[in-house]
Amino acid sequence: MPAICYVNTVMLDTCSPAPKALISQDPLFMTHDNLLTTEARDAVLIIKLNRAAKRNAINDALLEALEHQFSRLPEETRAVVLAGEGEHFCAGLDLAERLSKPRRNALDTVRHSRRWHRCFELIQFGDVPVISALKGAVIGGGLELAAATHIRVADTGTFFQLPEGQHGIFVGGGASVRVPRIIGAHRMVEMMLTGRKVDAQEGHALGLCHYVEPEGNSFEQALSLATKIAGNAEISNYAIINAISRINDMSMAEGFFTESVVASMSRSSNEADQRISSFFEQRKQASQS
Question: How far apart are CA 221 and CA 241, in angstroms?
Fold first, then answer.
């Protein structure tokens, strides 16, 4: 079993510049708000939303903590597992906090939405692959967060929902861009109009998750996948998570050219030569045994 290197709880310190890595070597390092917990297992960083009493609903402080963390991953991190403490992954926007504050005007609402976009873009187009371990509620903003991750592992107790229509609001964290690319615009329209719950098996068929594990096992599968992915060439992982979705949005001509450029970048590394040589050496040894 991989060794646990360090555990930490993430804070936001807005009074002083943040270090590149927010993970302290002190296993008891605490901060003013325990909004995220982090744990490193070799090259895999585990990040957990830590608002279990609120079903990990995203308030402004948690959004800021996520942005802070994903913009300052430790240099040794090669993959991330994103999960939630408690019984749920994320129940979306913290509606109670929204009601407790003065109503935003139109411009402030746009700015707030753009904060969500900026945070989730750090996940989708960051430095390392992010694997989400889903369970329980993956609702509204929680689905927007999950959709920004590269591999989604659900358990059989997971359900997906977009209830914004019933709440009299609209998605604002990127769902109208990411979710239709996963399931199709017409299916997202149906989910929002009805507000119905989509269970794990249907979600898998639609593409909302890539794996469905027995209840309670999504985290272990996500960690296993992340450990394997962390062993890939760093430049290949970076190219995969940053190039493919962008190429998918391009015309064929632009996509072909971009693919060639990215392939050239990945092939020019010394690591590529070493891995290819190792592959042929292993085949040679296997054929001789």
Answer: 20
C-alpha dihedral sign at 240, 89, 39, 8: positive
Taking the CA of residue 56 as centre, how many other CA atoms within 13 Å lie in the half-sphere pointing to its CB? 30
Q: What digits encode the pLDDT tens for the residues 108-166?
A: 999 999 999 999 999 999 999 999 999 999 999 999 999 999 999 999 999 999 999 99
Domain spans, the chain? 4-230, 234-288
234-288: what CATH class? mainly alpha
Domain 4-230 annotated CATH 3.90.226.10: yes
Neighbours of 93 (CB within 10 A): 24
Give the residue numbers annotated as catalytic, written as ranges: 144, 164
Q: pTM higher than 0.90 for the full model? A: no
H-only helix segments in 139-233: 141-147, 164-167, 175-183, 185-194, 200-206, 218-230
